């Protein structure tokens, strides 16, 4: 069934590049406004060593911030999801915090930690933990009352309920949030690198644009997008393997 | 006569716990003997489920006493098995692992789980075979039909050999054939090792088929209106349902319920 659609993502992506190429060439768009994808790929090849170095930096930064977000998100989500008191106390603060544009926090982080890797890691963390908290909390809080009664009538402690039912049950929610969170983490780290760093994809694109090297800027964008898709794919695969019961064994999702 | 195994003495239950909150249960008294099969029937929303929560200790009474096994109930009892209309099986566990769940929680099984897992699995397989689920142990609940899930749920409620089984409309969502098949399975398990059962249902035929004693409850606030002994001999089978005394008993209960519904709908707004 899914074999029929096996090539459709490739067809769609290549089609997008073809249309882009045709439009830019056909309308004679100057390269400093919008370069062709072919020019961007050429730039990516020419500057491959620099891109590799900066891409690795961005990837590690992103995964570092993401790892902190997972730990923090699971702990906070468990607390928020298993207690109504903590939920109502923490909810407005969490929503308020999530409404603050994280780019506004970068200058503060720079004041505290200087420019470079640390503020990028922290920005990636700050932007990506929220969906994890919300999803873990939702998974725990939506436990069926009857199931809780079954366990409590057996004399199960709160910890028993959490370990036997709460956590396994919220795994699909958790993995769904990881896919979203890892792409957000890229947004955070690149944003911070753009504002305050001399290393990473954000910095690379910033310096390229100041030299009017638009093909290199777009090459950077494509590399970031590719890393995001790859990470999404990794967590999608982990999700599918570990929560087969939630998708009832169907190959989609 | 010996002391009752379950003894509800003038119990009242209010929602929320405020002294002026509406009553869910009013002046409810019941005495259930060890090994007795009791059915509680009544219109929906009459507090039947609240009754189960009281007896199992999930909810404290607002007034009165609940005594189970010579002890006043003050918290969740550990000698209870429960099954609901919704099978509430865990979808990430196989049928066998679902049935084993109580053994991972209740002592003394819990401490012995690691060492004796094989023996426990054997015991669960036997129970599953008895309810007609032999060969389905490794299937996931979502690979089973509704009736099979309910059988598994019944096994889960009995695996730790509880003295008291609470059933909250467990067959309510099943088709008539499956339901009557499960009546026989439940009766068979109960006759093999008599445990005390409180079955909440709104199916009068089910109550008459299964129970020794039938309680009829009034509309909210719930109150016991009638206690009806059921003299039909056991084991009962599909033929029993066509006997005149079976039909008469169902008929009499039906009339009782009709009276309850008409009187309570007049005062239902108060």
Automatic annotation (TrEMBL), chain A:
Keywords: Cell membrane, Membrane, Transmembrane, Transmembrane helix, Transport. Signal peptide: none annotated. The chain crosses the membrane at residues 7-27, 59-81, 93-115, 121-143, 173-192, 212-235. InterPro entries: MetI-like, MetI-like_sf. It is found in: Cell membrane. GO terms for biological process: transmembrane transport. CDD domains: TM_PBP2. Belongs to the binding-protein-dependent transport system permease family. Residues 55-235 form the ABC transmembrane type-1 domain. It is a multi-pass membrane protein. Pfam families: BPD_transp_1. This is ABC transporter permease. It comes from Telmatospirillum siberiense. Its main location: membrane. PROSITE patterns: ABC_TM1 (PS50928). One of its GO terms (cellular component) is plasma membrane. The lineage of its organism: Bacteria, Pseudomonadati, Pseudomonadota, Alphaproteobacteria, Rhodospirillales.
From TrEMBL, chain B:
This is Nitrate ABC transporter ATP-binding protein. Belongs to the ABC transporter superfamily. InterPro entries: AAA+_ATPase, ABC_transporter-like_ATP-bd, ABC_transporter-like_CS, ABC_transporter_ATP-bind, P-loop_NTPase. Keywords: ATP-binding, Nucleotide-binding, Transport. It holds the Pfam family ABC_tran. Residues 6-244 form the ABC transporter domain. The keyword Phosphoprotein does not apply. One of its GO terms (molecular function) is ATP binding. It comes from Telmatospirillum siberiense.
């Amino acid at each position: 069934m899914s074999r029929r659609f096996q090539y459709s993502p490739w067809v769609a992506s290549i089609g997008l590049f073809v249309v882009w190429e045709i439009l830019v060439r056909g309308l004679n768009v100057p390269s400093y406004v919008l370069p062709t994808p072919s020019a961007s790929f050429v730039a990516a090849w020419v500057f491959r060593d620099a891109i590799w170095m900066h891409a690795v930096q961005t990837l590690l930064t992103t995964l570092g911030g993401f790892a902190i977000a997972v730990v923090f998100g699971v702990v906070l989500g468990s607390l928020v999801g298993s207690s109504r008191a903590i939920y109502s106390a923490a909810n407005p603060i969490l929503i308020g915090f999530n409404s603050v544009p994280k780019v506004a926090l970068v200058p503060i982080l720079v004041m505290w930690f200087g420019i470079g890797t640390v503020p990028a890691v922290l920005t990636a963390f700050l932007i990506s933990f929220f969906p994890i908290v919300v999803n873990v909390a939702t998974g725990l809080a939506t436990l069926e009352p009857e199931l809780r009664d079954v366990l409590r009538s057996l004399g199960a402690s709160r910890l028993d309920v959490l370990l036997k039912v709460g956590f396994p049950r919220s795994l699909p929610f958790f993995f769904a949030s990881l896919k979203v969170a890892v792409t957000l983490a890229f947004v955070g780290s690149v944003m911070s690198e753009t504002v305050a760093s001399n290393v990473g994809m954000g910095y690379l694109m910033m310096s390229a644009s100041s030299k009017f090297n638009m093909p290199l800027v777009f090459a950077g964008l494509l590399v970031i997008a590719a890393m995001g898709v790859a990470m999404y794919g990794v967590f999608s695969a982990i999700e599918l393997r570990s929560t087969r019961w939630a998708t009832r064994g169907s190959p989609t999702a | 006569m010996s002391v009752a195994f379950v003894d509800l003495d003038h119990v009242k239950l209010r929602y929320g716990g405020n002294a002026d909150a509406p009553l869910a249960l009013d002046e409810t008294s019941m005495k259930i003997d060890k090994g007795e099969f009791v059915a509680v029937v009544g219109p929906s929303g009459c507090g039947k489920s609240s009754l189960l929560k009281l007896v199992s200790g999930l909810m404290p009474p607002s007034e009165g006493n609940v005594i189970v096994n010579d002890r006043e109930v003050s918290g969740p009892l550990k000698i209870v098995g429960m099954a609901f209309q919704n099978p509430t099986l865990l979808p990430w566990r196989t049928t066998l692992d679902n049935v084993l769940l109580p053994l991972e929680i209740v002592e003394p099984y819990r401490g012995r789980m690691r060492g004796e897992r094989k023996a426990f699995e054997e015991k669960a397989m036997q129970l599953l075979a008895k309810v007609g689920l032999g060969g389905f142990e490794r299937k996931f609940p979502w690979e089973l039909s509704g009736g099979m899930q309910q059988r598994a749920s019944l096994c889960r409620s009995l695996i730790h050999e509880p003295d008291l089984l609470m059933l909250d409309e467990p067959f309510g969502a099943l088709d008539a054939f499956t339901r009557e098949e499960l009546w026989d399975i439940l009766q068979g398990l109960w006759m093999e090792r008599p445990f005390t059962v409180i079955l909440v249902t709104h199916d009068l035929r089910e109550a008459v088929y299964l129970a020794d004693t039938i309680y009829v409850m009034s509309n909210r606030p719930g109150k016991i209106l009638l206690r009806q002994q059921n003299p039909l001999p056991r084991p009962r089978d599909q033929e029993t349902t066509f006997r005149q005394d079976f039909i008469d008993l169902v008929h009499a209960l039906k009339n009782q319920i009709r009276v309850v519904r008409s009187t309570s709908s007049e005062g239902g707004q108060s």
